[in-house]
Description:
- The protein is an alpha+beta fold.
- Helices cover 36% and strands 26% of the residues.
- It is built from one helix and two strands; from the N terminus they run E-H-E.
- It has one helix at residues 15-31; strands spanning 6-11, 34-39.
- It has a two-stranded parallel ribbon with strand order 1-2.
- The model has no long low-confidence stretch (mean pLDDT 91).
Amino acid sequence: MKQQFKILLATDYSEEVMNSERYAVQFAEQTNAVLTIVHVYEIPFNS
C-alpha cells in the first residue's frame, strides 16, 4: 500500500519562513502529497 503524505504548513509569509515554504512545495510535488497552507496572523493585544 502506497503511503499518502499530508503536509500542513503554517506561515506568516515572512522572509524567515520562505525557505520552509519552498521545501514543503518541493516535497509535496515529489511525493504527491496534499499540501495545506494556513496563513497565521497575530493580532497585537493592547491592555
